[in-house]
Amino acid sequence: MSALDAEALRAELGGRYAAVDVVAATGSTNADLVAAAASAADRTVLIADEQTAGRGRRARTWVSPPGSGLYLSVLLRPDGVPLARFGSLALVAGVALVRTARAAGVAASLKWPNDLLAGSSLAKCAGVLAEVADTGPDPAVVVGIGLNVGPLGTAVPAGPGGLPPTSLAQEGGDADRGRAAATLLAAFDEAESAWRGSGGDLGAAGLLAQYRGACSTLGQRVRVELPDGTDLHGLAVDVDEAGQLVLDVGGGTRTLSAGDVVHVRPTG
User: Fold this and answer.
1) Are the beta carbons of 57 and 121 closer than 8 angstroms?
2) Any bridge partners for residue 75, and if so which?
3) Contact 117, 171 (CB under 8 A)
4) Greatest pairwise CA separation for the chain in angstroms
5) What is the DSSP string of 13-72?
6) Do residues 158 and 118 touch, judged by C-beta distance below 8 A?
7) Residue 22 and residue 4 in contact, taking contact as beta carbons nearer than 8 Å
8) Cα 176 to Cα 174: distance, rounded to the nearest angstrom
9) What is the DSSP letter of 230?
């Protein structure tokens, strides 16, 4: 299953998702599902072979060249989960990405809040973007994942904050995009089902311990760039039950959500 074949993926996944569609190209799979959120079923998946306007956190560009990556979004209607916990789905996706990379034979870790790092150089291999869609009394959330699978060439620049890009193939891993898609969607199904079943409680779902165990940010001294242009320095000591980063800033702690930060960089 080397190509992105929707029929083969549906058969492989065995009904875990309400719909799995693959398109040759689109602007952004996240934008497409947000636009369709009023009518799309829970657990609708859209995959594109190429994105021409892919985006990441804080409206950053995600370069999505054809044939080399896995660009997908999942629309969810997590009934019984408080809206305030929807943002923690980015961490749920992170856990699924680590499982996918390791299944492909690549050592991987997570950089809080939404990056998958791979290889000995800890280069960026994937990113996550979760967006809430306003659908009235039945809220939906779209989780977008961009995973570099095949060789990148020169089309993919360094990411925000200067993180160099890498891919599963460049780290010596399995570069079969079809297998990566099936593995990622199965892992996300398992993790999201546990998250949903616990009412969005990462700890009760068993996912917080997994995230902490894979998070390379923890234990690092970091510089956090804030939206007002100031910096915050401290030791990253924890990720809490809401998926927020806890910093020891000397004389106390500071808790930050993903929306509070522009960049998080290690300082040694």
Assistant:
1) no
2) 44, 142
3) no
4) 57
5) HTTSSSEEEEES-BS-HHHHHHHTTTTPPTTEEEEES-BSS-B-GGG-B--B-TTTEEEE
6) no
7) yes
8) 6
9) -
DSSP lists the bridge partners of residue 232 as 224
Residues 6+ apart with CB under 8 A from 222: 233, 234, 235, 236, 247, 264, 265, 266, 267
**Cα(126)–Cα(168) distance, rounded to whole angstroms?**
10
Q: 0.90 cut: is pTM over it? A: yes
Q: What angle do CA 167, 217, 160 make, to 5 degrees?
A: 55
Q: What is the amino acid identity at position 69?
A: G
Q: What is the pLDDT along the chain (268 residues), one digit of tens a residue?
A: 456 899 999 999 999 999 999 999 999 999 999 999 999 999 999 999 988 865 554 445 556 677 789 999 999 999 999 999 999 999 999 999 999 999 999 999 999 999 999 988 899 999 999 999 977 778 899 999 999 999 886 666 666 566 889 999 999 999 999 999 999 999 999 999 999 999 999 999 999 999 999 999 999 999 999 988 999 999 999 999 999 999 999 989 999 998 888 889 898 6
Angle between helices 177-197 and 207-214 (to 10 degrees): 130
Q: Return the amino acid letter for 169.
A: A
